[in-house]
């Protein structure tokens, strides 16, 4: 099939590339010309494992191209995907200006029947709004279909090629069938719903995952007070198939471009119909507080942070991405500086993106993990990159001024810590070191 994707962010680019790899002809369109120029040179504007190679392959085989012009690609396509951003407005609602603009531009370009698929995450009722905008500007026939996207950054290609399910929200049976045919090579689990339910499935899924994270973080906070180990609690809970093991990793809370904005948007969607989504408001509040547990732990161990040097491992909101949108580091680093600390930071990939968001004379940009720890009074791990997980902690201990380690993602094991003199703080686990080792009660038995 001939497909056009409007917007080459994570979703547009990865889905466009994956659909071309499945044998479709795809044009990825973006109004950001430097981005399109990069893609035309074979460079990739985001860090996503495997994406560069897949772009090179499909471009070379002639199925994938990039353009700043929307008209010709829309006219040549049978299906047009909208994958533009829906960022958060100051009141929490989704900003639909890019959606509206894309809809107007598609309408003007239409030259015959097309299926317009919305992949962007949009509030309930938005696909009807898209239909209305396009309908007012064209006499050509078209259908609007909602196909929300569930990929995760860092594993975006695998998630796209092997999704747990595909949701198709449609009014027209024929359009739903065409979109189902396009997705059948990916999965047999295709669920067709009405458009409003499809829009809600996306928000409800993200809100539920965020709820799991805040729930386990609160359990972790209680574990710290009662001397239990949250990783063992999560393991024990996760074995129950009704609960499931995923998204029960306690830490410094969720970040990224979607959970924070989509939880706020769903609270607003509910508010607009006079429903107070109390549970989700608490999920957001717990997540906000969780980040600052890192600061409390540093204050507990160092007392006054003024004049201290703190090393930071990890700036991206999670590993295997250079995305720093809503990353916990973007709040933790400025908070440390406000408390008078100097901060030495290192991330394998996300340093440049972080620097564009936040820079300060009290930040020292380190070139590797050991350099970021050197001469520090404490070290905080904020992102669980493999590079940090595999580090020799005994070597790190030697280069630091004081052996204090705050592990915001619970990555280090009892065995690793026992070999060191680190004063070790994790999230919801008993403190462990050579002199204060506590054996977990049921792990590895
Ligand atoms: N980032 C992610 O992992 C996921 C994002 N989503 C949703 O997908 C949507 C897109 O997210 P991202 O890919 O992160 O977006 P992004 O904000 O990184 O990129 C959007 C792109 O669309 C372009 N654009 C905007 N208006 C345009 C127009 N009229 N014509 C051509 N290009 C235009 C922008 O220049 C930008 O390059 C959002 O609604 C998001 O919530 C859904 C699942 C996963
Ligand atoms: O709508 C979206 O944009 C996407 O949002 C998330 O994907 P993503 O933000 O890429 O990353 P996740 O792996 O879900 O992690 C989100 C945040 O939660 C945190 N997290 C995740 C899992 C966990 O157990 N604990 C935890 O703190 C991560 O560190 C990260 O900061 C969803 O997982 C995707 O299904 C969805 O498509």
Q: What is this structure, in a nutshell?
A:
The protein has 445 residues and is of the alpha/beta class.
Features:
6-stranded parallel β-sheet; N-(1-d-carboxylethyl)-l-norvaline Dehydrogenase, domain 2; 19 helices; 14 strands; binds uridine-5'-diphosphate-glucuronic acid; 8-stranded mixed β-sheet; 445 residues; Rossmann fold; alpha/beta; binds 1,4-dihydronicotinamide adenine dinucleotide
Structure, explained:
The protein contains 19 helices and 14 strands. It is an alpha/beta fold and 445 residues long. The chain folds into three domains: 2-193, NAD(P)-binding Rossmann-like Domain (Rossmann fold); 202-289, N-(1-d-carboxylethyl)-l-norvaline Dehydrogenase, domain 2 (Orthogonal Bundle), CATH 1.10.1040.10; 292-425, NAD(P)-binding Rossmann-like Domain (Rossmann fold). Helix 9 crosses helix 11 (259-272), helix 9 (195-226) packs across helix 12 and helix 11 packs antiparallel against helix 12 (278-291). The longest helix has 32 residues, at 195-226. It starts with a strand and ends in a 20-residue tail after the last strand.
The radius of gyration over CA amounts to 24 Å
Main sheet makeup: 8 strands, mixed
Distinct small molecules:
1,4-dihydronicotinamide adenine dinucleotide, uridine-5'-diphosphate-glucuronic acid
Please report which band the strand proportion falls in: under 5%, 5-15%, 15-25%, 25-35%, 35-45% or over 45%.
5-15%
Number of domains: 3
Mean pLDDT: 95
At the first level of CATH, the class of the largest domain is Alpha Beta
């Amino acid at each position: 099939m001939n497909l056009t994707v409007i917007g080459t962010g994570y979703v547009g680019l990865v889905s466009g590339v994956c659909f071309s790899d499945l044998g479709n002809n795809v044009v990825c369109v973006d109004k950001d010309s430097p981005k399109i120029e990069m893609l035309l040179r074979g460079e990739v504007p985001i860090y996503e494992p495997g994406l560069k190679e897949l772009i090179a392959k499909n471009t070379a085989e002639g199925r994938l191209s990039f353009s700043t012009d929307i008209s010709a690609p829309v006219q040549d396509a049978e299906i047009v995907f909208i994958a533009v951003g829906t960022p958060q407005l100051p009141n929490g609602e989704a900003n639909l200006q890019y959606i509206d603009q894309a809809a107007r531009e598609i309408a003007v370009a239409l030259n015959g029947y097309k299926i317009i698929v919305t992949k962007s995450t949009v509030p309930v009722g938005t696909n009807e709004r898209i239909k209305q905008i396009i309908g007012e500007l064209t006499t050509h026939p078209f259908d609007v279909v909602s196909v929300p996207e569930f990929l995760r950054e860092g594993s975006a290609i695998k998630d796209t090629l092997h999704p747990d399910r595909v949701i198709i929200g449609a009014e027209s049976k024929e359009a739903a069938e065409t979109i189902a045919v396009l997705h059948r090579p990916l999965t047999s689990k295709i669920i067709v719903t009405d458009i409003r339910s499809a829009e809600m499935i996306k928000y409800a899924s993200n809100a539920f995952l965020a709820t799991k994270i805040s729930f386990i973080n609160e359990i972790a906070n209680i574990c710290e007070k009662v001397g239990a180990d949250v990783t063992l609690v999560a393991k024990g809970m996760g074995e129950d198939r009704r609960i499931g093991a995923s998204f029960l990793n306690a830490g410094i809370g969720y970040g990224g471009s979607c959970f924070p904005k989509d939880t706020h948007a769903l609270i607003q969607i509910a508010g607009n119909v006079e429903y107070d989504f109390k549970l989700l408001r608490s999920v957001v509040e717990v997540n906000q507080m969780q980040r600052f547990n890192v600061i409390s732990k540093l204050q507990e161990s160092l007392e006054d942070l003024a004049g201290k040097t703190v090393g930071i491992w990890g700036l991206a909101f999670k590993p295997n991405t250079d995305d720093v949108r809503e990353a916990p580091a973007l709040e933790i680093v400025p908070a440390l500086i406000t408390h008078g600390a100097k901060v030495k930071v290192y991330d394998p990939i996300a340093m440049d993106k972080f620097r564009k968001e936040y820079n300060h004379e009290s930040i020292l940009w380190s070139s590797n993990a050991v350099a970021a720890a050197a001469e520090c009074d404490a070290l905080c791990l904020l992102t669980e990159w493999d590079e940090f997980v595999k580090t020799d902690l005994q070597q790190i201990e030697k280069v630091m001024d004081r052996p204090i380690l705050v592990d915001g993602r619970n990555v280090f094991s009892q065995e690793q810590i026992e070999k060191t003199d680190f004063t070790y703080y994790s999230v919801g686990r008993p403190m462990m070191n050579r002199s204060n080792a506590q054996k977990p009660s049921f792990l590895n038995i």
